[in-house]
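Note to self: the last two entries modelled the partners one at a time, which told us nothing about the interface. This time every component goes in together.
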Amino acid sequence: MTMEQSEKLNKIQVAALDEILGKKFPVLDDGFVRVVDYMGSDESIVQAARVSYGAGTKKVNEDRALIRYLLRNRHTTPFEMCEIKLHVRVPMDTWRQWIRHRTANVNEYSTRYSLAIDSSQKTKIDEWRMQSKDNKQGSEGFFPEEIGAKLSEREDELQNFAREIYQERLNLGVAREQARKDLPLSTYTEAYWKIDLHNLLNFLSLRMDHHAQFEIRSYANVIGNEIVARWTPIAWQAFKDYRINSIELSSLDIEVLKLVIKNEKENAITKAAELGMIKIIDGKILLNREGAEFENKISKLGINAPWN
Amino acid sequence: MTMEQSEKLNKIQVAALDEILGKKFPVLDDGFVRVVDYMGSDESIVQAARVSYGAGTKKVNEDRALIRYLLRNRHTTPFEMCEIKLHVRVPMDTWRQWIRHRTANVNEYSTRYSLAIDSSQKTKIDEWRMQSKDNKQGSEGFFPEEIGAKLSEREDELQNFAREIYQERLNLGVAREQARKDLPLSTYTEAYWKIDLHNLLNFLSLRMDHHAQFEIRSYANVIGNEIVARWTPIAWQAFKDYRINSIELSSLDIEVLKLVIKNEKENAITKAAELGMIKIIDGKILLNREGAEFENKISKLGINAPWN
Amino acid sequence: MTMEQSEKLNKIQVAALDEILGKKFPVLDDGFVRVVDYMGSDESIVQAARVSYGAGTKKVNEDRALIRYLLRNRHTTPFEMCEIKLHVRVPMDTWRQWIRHRTANVNEYSTRYSLAIDSSQKTKIDEWRMQSKDNKQGSEGFFPEEIGAKLSEREDELQNFAREIYQERLNLGVAREQARKDLPLSTYTEAYWKIDLHNLLNFLSLRMDHHAQFEIRSYANVIGNEIVARWTPIAWQAFKDYRINSIELSSLDIEVLKLVIKNEKENAITKAAELGMIKIIDGKILLNREGAEFENKISKLGINAPWN
Amino acid sequence: MTMEQSEKLNKIQVAALDEILGKKFPVLDDGFVRVVDYMGSDESIVQAARVSYGAGTKKVNEDRALIRYLLRNRHTTPFEMCEIKLHVRVPMDTWRQWIRHRTANVNEYSTRYSLAIDSSQKTKIDEWRMQSKDNKQGSEGFFPEEIGAKLSEREDELQNFAREIYQERLNLGVAREQARKDLPLSTYTEAYWKIDLHNLLNFLSLRMDHHAQFEIRSYANVIGNEIVARWTPIAWQAFKDYRINSIELSSLDIEVLKLVIKNEKENAITKAAELGMIKIIDGKILLNREGAEFENKISKLGINAPWN
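The predicted structure of the combined assembly is written out below.
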């Protein structure tokens, strides 16, 4: 009559995840991610979702279909029934972005209480990135190695000097909480980070995105591909199919695309101009950001923009 | 050098909790609470707290002292590292209070999708409570059984009639989401409720309190005494010592109590009046709420109020 | 050099919202929504977003384009800078759904302290809905009025009886907190509900959806169309263009749609079957839920499903 | 009949806060806090609390008493009805602690998009603090100025060098998001920070505490004493009386204190030893942390520890 039949009475274990419990997945030059503990699995998502369906629906044993349906339709609460606890080592600069995700439990290594971790993220000579021209907050392309070498050398000097000053202060007896004040943002920190699967997928959809900074993206990719993929493989596949690799067409996109599909090129261009996706100046078409996004989306459907 | 040494690499299991996994603890006439899954233990609290202490402090192997220190000083984040998932069956009226605790994950039984659970909370003839005179939102004392019998009989009539109407609607083909609209608040619902230990202790400190309504208090007592006590026994004892059985003296209480302790009765009374704890009218002392609270607190220290 | 120039030093007021401050927008037979207070406006969203752009970008004075960009790309934090406080009157049954949105501040009318509001939601004779066949949790179509009349009459009997019992208990001196236990879910409650714009838009996108139950949808529509539309008109339009009226194509949808666009009907059908959107049994095509969703989405692009 | 009468229909303004809107309160050498916007006042707290009391209690016009009652008894939701938005400039090192308070809305200055703020927190020659001996995570006392001068000089060298490297990278065209990676933690950042009064008071109770690090404590003191004191003066006074200046006696404290008050010194000492507050070794009494806390608490009641 009620939901009780639909559940398991023993702790759910996921063998594929148990195998890598405690294993360090390296990230960047000296960072890592590892799973410390977890609760739940694909099965728990189903279990929670079935609460809404009652006993009568146990015959629906298509767990995979159910999980995919939930994810597709943003029924998010069943995914909250899974929880994972990671141990991460991250440069403070990256941690500054990471910590902005508020729906997580955190215990960070304290440099008030303990000595700062003696490691700063180092940039290899072929890893120096150029400022993107188009994207004010992005990077694009790498410096040639001879410039990179110079940059890495100077980085080294600065990191060494910063560590020297830190040590000097400690030797003199300066309080740790004050001595640390000029450590570089590249200094590694560590934390336990515990989060439910729904919020973790949100984190991943933002941080695996190509707009995310390379450093945090590297962590997100490891968490997604190495950890979530093992933990809740069905949810992970659904997430890729319905979130990561989906396209969202706005009502503006739809209006223009309809005309493109009907092969009304001119009308499509006029409509796009009217909706502010493009500008027509002296007969030339200039794409603004939204127009470029549109072009990019429809190219995934194998369609050319009407102005190409 | 870092925090890695301080942790376990296998999933923490708590034998005492494993023993009762899935067991239904009955509450009220037809409700229950049971543990479906959990993550962490007293050990995880310590593990998380040690992050802030680094490797150098592993010699501090007094876990109990550390947990008690954390709880006493409201260092709350290590308690968030423990998570528990309960399956509960609760009257909707009680659930209305329960759900106000926002920091939890919830999947509730859906009466849009399924038939409402065929059970309403029934009040036994000796369980009818009288309105408190002092406390506008409380109850006080029980009705004699002959009145209780009448009340229970009428309750039965109403619950039966409500169920009859619900059934009538369903028989006619009214949508479940609408048919349920006049079910009594006493109708049972069920849910998975997942929460971390820190927020669970907050829930318990509010809902085990004698000001909490009897019904939700009954659930809180079971969760605390039967479940948390087995899960994290050290944290539970600390919670009782430092939260449940503590007294908070306000700066006003302190001012008056200092005079009482110095045996300056008259000054204490004058001060209490000045601070608005009491009123003196025609030489008679009238306690207001804060004065009564003060009297109650110091009685736990074996001290009489100066006006007694 | 920093962000300070980009802000206003006086409280932002929105004239269009000030005009309706305190005005009750009626919902259902005896419910309402009204704005009690608010903070921020479209301007505050821009102000917060500009923090990320620094002083150099003040020339970018296209506020509208910026807000639309933020909403389109799920840069959600600037929308959190706007906050609104509503006073709502809602049947408890609807409130049970409403309160599941956790990121809000709530003060609800207490029936422990005060008498329950003497009003229950009544269903007019032409408002009784039939259970949907396709959608286990939905309704579909209305009963003819002669059946509706009977249902409304019985509803009345039940609501009156429930109120009679409530009154009986109070007259006898039963504690309010217990007397209320069998009130019907249709009983109205009231609350202050305070939420930021980002979370309000999430609420609206879920509750204005046609899958949401009629009752809560009615509230969501009023909040959206009457209140948010006046408060932050640019964000509201963007929300409609990029969230409410958008289509999300999954990677599966994309694969099939590409073939449809290339006019490879047979291949499209084979692909759809392969991906589990449809089943082909004895040469007949059966749509499952995902196939039907696909058909519905592409119809908005003016495209027929390959199997039609 | 309902709660509507108890509210105001126009936006609540607080004159004392309006006066300082936008005013920068300086903190540290180059930081500040200022109010950008707010919503609510002491009056809104009362308004929200009265929801629970209904119309019948309007005669209770003692707003001050009500606010004090709410705060004393941890009825926290009415305080959530007030919201404030600050603009703060803070060293990143301090911001790392600040941001751990999760229940706030944040828009931080982006050094991906813009140049890092050209200012690092500098320590004056008389501001260098020594590591505390007792408290592993605290500081205690200052260095003499001749040592301080040396430390400040070296700080300057490091900060200048870090800025030089940052500039070098930018000149070469390194992406801003990467160029910033070795900036010192002392670099200033700015943010809008929006939070409700309940959560702000939690922040203040933790960060105004003498255990909080000097830097963040400086901000907390300004926010409390300059801003909250003007905004919600009654709630602020209550907060000081019932939270900041209160003492919490644990059940252990109570047991020992009862004996002290009865003047049973020996029994009190025995009890304290039994409860683990003190150790008696060779007849000598050694205080552990809990014993020291006890001693400190009762000294505020004008009582000496039994072992003194």
